[in-house]
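Q: Hi! First time doing this. I have a protein sequence and I read that you can turn it into a structure. Is that right? Here it is:
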Amino acid sequence: MARVFVYGTLKKGQPNYKHMINTAKGLAKFQGTGRTVEKYPLVIAGKYNIPYMLNIPGTGHHVAGEIYSVDDQMLQFLDEFEGCPDMYQRTLMRIEVVEWEGKGGVGEARAAAEGVVECFVYSTTTYPPEWVGLPYHDSYDSSGKHGLSYILRESR
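A: Yes, that's right. Below is the predicted 3D structure, encoded as structure tokens:
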């Protein structure tokens, strides 16, 4: 099992969460909530209003999201879903645990107790330079105050 941190449309209550609970795509077990240890710019960009975490450590905010434990099948699905490695790149990042629900072995308990876990995160280094000038968010909600409605793939 791998640990994945999601900050956008794959979170609970967001437009693509249905994929996280679709066992035909693999297993994803909710472990808790967290935020990036380092600051990153989280922008909403492109004609479909997609949330992107730009891989520019030290700029932006500590981005909030959810931590999942996923099997290889789900990780492969997420790679395809996220357009990895072209649109997003899957990299390991340190995530500060805000609230832990995960149950697991000694390693899980120690990681949660220490307050920081390593997770795969889909961020991007391949973006138009003007995205750096967009407003930065500390968390994403598809129906947030930003007024930028996410366009589902099925509707594109």
